[in-house]
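Risk register update: the risk of archive-format incompatibility is retired. Evidence:
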Amino acid sequence: MGKLKKLTLENLLDRKGKQDKMGLSTLDVASLDSSIEIVKIKTRKVCEIMDKYDVKQGDITSNYDMMCELIYKSVPILQKDDLKSQFNVPTPYEVVGELFSFNEMEKIALHIMELHGLTDENQTPVNDEIKN
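Archived output:
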């Protein structure tokens, strides 16, 4: 293995610039015949959402609720005020379940977690791999 170079302020600023450019992503959703724009929210916020619903317990309802919130907070168009009123849902997150199938929600949520480096090479959420 070769000798690593010394970390500099320029290296860190360059990395920050590259991460800022990766803050926006799109994902094709066949049922909508469109691609959705996904904004990379703070990784800490994603972790808080995952912890809030305790997804590692395998409860399908918790996973569903976690995906709804994660997708809602990462897809700006879903946050439009008119959308909630048009679908007549009690909470904004429920718009997600009205628009996407469970499989689509899994695909979108996985994409969001990949943006944050929260999946392993086998495409499973990190929480599934932490079990001893």
